[in-house]
Amino acid sequence: MGETLAAISSKDVRAQRQVDALLEQEGVRRDGNLDYTCGLFDDNWRLVATGSCFGSTIRCLAVSSDRQGEGLLNQIVTHLMAVQAERGNTHLFLYTKPKSAKFFGGLGFYEIARAENSLVFMENRRRGFSDYCAALEKTCREGTSAAIVMNANPFTLGHLHLVERAAAENAAVHLFVLSEEAGPIPFDVRKRLVEAGIAHLPNVVCHDSGPYIISAATFPSYFLKDEDTVIRTHAALDLEVFGKIAPRLNIARRYVGEEKASHVTALYNEIMAARLPELGVECRVIPRLEAEGKPVSASMVRQAIHDRQLEDIRSLVPESTWSYFNSRSAQPVIEAIRRETNVIHY
User: Which of 83, 126, 157 lies closest to 316 in space, CA to CA?
Assistant: First the structure.
């Protein structure tokens, strides 16, 4: 019995239906973020195994139940790794169920962290995460440190309020900016605006999150049955990773903004408040800065830009952010925001 391994085009309706059926059969939902999909087809052109990529991750792996144990998944993963290498992605990540972690270990993947009984986060570099932590450790400062993780999409007075509060209450603040490209404002712009906005705070150290602090945009939801389970598992895994970073930087507190409007963020904060103390880190939830009775948020800023009401953001952002959005270099970003169908992310 021979199989044919082939890329599956997004326009190939028949093959895409087979992918959905095979994933569903194996209890996996198609992930919303995929940029390459392949499949193994038998002599009758029936799909017997599939897998996909998104960015530097491998995801949505499934093998037909009547063909398991034949090494088909090994062929799929080997092919996806070759595709990633052609793209220049040599540092790869995957998420798998705990029962499959040993299999991927045999293919050269190493565990970073796990949300017990739900998900294991792995990479193909033995010292990838430990090297990342070692680099962070070089920025460690004396005394008690705090941490903040933000997308800063873009950096607002609300973000600044949170950072200033942490900076006033701690010897040092380690500020992690999510480095994944997950929206119309590129990471290099987001980080530059953060650094400009906190330039007056000498005890704040700004870091790229790298691939280890996981954003909601690339967190895999395809293993999980409903949205709240996705949020809870994402939070659990993210906090396990953070719990390994915190002692390297003497982090004793993590600051988050209070959330009333977003169900996702509110649930994430609830889980954080319960789990962080178990990891030896205090969780401080800070009331949001308000403008005209409404919490200042990046969503408000993006909405105003989207609606061509640029002047409305002036009272919501630091001078450095305002100056950027009034510059010629911001025009491509402004146009990208205006092309978005939904700029309010929950």
Answer: 157
